Amino acid sequence: AQTVTQSQPEMSVQEAETVTLSCTYDTSENNYYLFWYKQPPSRQMILVIRQEAYKQQNATENRFSVNFQKAAKSFSLKISDSQLGDTAMYFCAFMSPTGTASKLTFGTGTRLQVTL
Amino acid sequence: NAGVTQTPKFRILKIGQSMTLQCAQDMNHNYMYWYRQDPGMGLKLIYYSVGAGITDKGEVPNGYNVSRSTTEDFPLRLELAAPSQTSVYFCASSPGRTNTGELFFGEGSRLTVL
Question: How many CB pairs under 8 A join A and B?
Answer without folding.
Answer: 63
